[in-house]
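// run 5 | inverse folding | seed 20
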């Protein structure tokens, strides 16, 4: 699939649920109302939709959410999608998780062919972890990470850089992740959803990078892993550090992905509202042809990029939906 700007679309992110066992302060409100369960696509429908994307040339599929591992019977879907790895139609099946349920599901994930996994972890301080996630248990996540590594999965740590919250801990996170043989990727908080204190939390990664450069030697790397991160090698640790900088450096020119929600809405851009309702098409016929056509015409409308901006004088978010609904 090629969009109007000549970009090859080969990466689908699927938010399998908007629900989550955490309430990270930058992601969702404490009293978030989740979608009625009746609105969700069934796992069979998600399989059919994802398989249609694979038929259209998607090579990489990431399951995300909300927290993907809290969706009931998710392993059925993971296992089903694994068949596309076996045929070679899909090159990679992967997941982004908060890690709370990871230890329980590691063996099943590995058996389905998941080789790499992203775990979100913003701090190594148990009290701060609980405060940022509003309910998470750090030990449980660390146990999950250890289990995934022991099962042979490549784990990457994602951390959102938060002013005044984890900004003094970024070096520790880096040394810990690299000490465990894991990449670390830092993310700028994005203006998605009505979240209190967004502007106060926003920490530009240009600043973080400049601070790290005082202590470490950062060598730019050409590596792209199919996502928006730009990587450096930290010469002192030998590990990789990624920067996802939607605010300070827009990465849309190389965007290869689209996002599907758990209700079958396809967002062609993380930061724009235009969307295609694939659930209606999916349910209108058992024949896949209309679905494949609807995917094709949605891709033909993929916008050039997002216009994220975080400004104390303009408190409205770029898009009203949260990252957990769209699928981060
Ligand atoms: N629950 C899983 C997790 O936390 O890894 C998967 C879904 S979560 C929405 C995916 C990623 O989006 C996480 O790494 C999270 O830190 C990030 N995220 C959530 N809200 C964000 C925001 N407003 N700006 C930047 N990153 C955000
Ligand atoms: Fe849940 Fe992930 Fe959002 Fe945190 S970032 S509230 S873990 S969906």
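// decoded
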């Amino acid at each position: 699939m090629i969009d109007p700007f000549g970009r090859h679309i080969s990466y689908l992110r699927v938010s399998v649920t908007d629900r989550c066992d955490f309430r990270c302060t930058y992601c969702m409100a404490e009293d978030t109302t989740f979608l009625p369960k009746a609105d969700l696509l069934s796992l069979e429908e998600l399989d059919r939709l994802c398989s249609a994307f694979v038929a259209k040339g998607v090579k990489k599929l990431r399951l995300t959410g909300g927290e993907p591992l809290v969706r009931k019977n998710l392993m059925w879907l993971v296992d089903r999608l694994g068949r596309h790895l076996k045929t070679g139609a899909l090159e990679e099946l992967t997941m982004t998780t908060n890690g709370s349920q990871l230890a329980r599901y590691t063996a099943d994930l590995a058996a389905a062919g998941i080789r790499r996994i992203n775990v979100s972890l913003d701090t190594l301080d148990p009290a701060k972890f609980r405060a940022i996630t509003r309910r998470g248990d750090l030990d449980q996540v660390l146990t999950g990470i250890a289990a995934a590594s022991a099962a042979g999965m490549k784990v990457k740590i994602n951390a959102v850089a938060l002013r005044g919250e984890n900004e003094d801990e970024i070096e520790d996170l880096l040394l810990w992740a690299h000490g465990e043989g894991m990449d670390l990727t830092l993310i700028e908080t994005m203006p998605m959803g009505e979240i209190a204190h967004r502007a106060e939390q926003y920490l530009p990664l240009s600043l973080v990078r400049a601070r790290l450069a005082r202590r470490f030697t950062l060598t730019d790397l050409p590596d792209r892993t199919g996502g928006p991160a730009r990587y450096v090698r930290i010469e002192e640790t030998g590990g990789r550090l990624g920067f996802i900088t939607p605010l300070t450096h827009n990465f849309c020119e190389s965007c290869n992905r689209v996002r599907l929600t758990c209700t079958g809405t396809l967002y062609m851009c993380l930061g724009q509202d235009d969307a295609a309702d694939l659930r209606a098409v999916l349910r209108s016929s058992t024949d896949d042809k209309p679905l494949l056509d609807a995917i094709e015409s949605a891709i033909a409308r993929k916008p050039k990029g997002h216009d994220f901006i975080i400004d104390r004088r303009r408190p409205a978010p770029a898009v009203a939906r949260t990252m957990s609904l769209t699928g981060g």
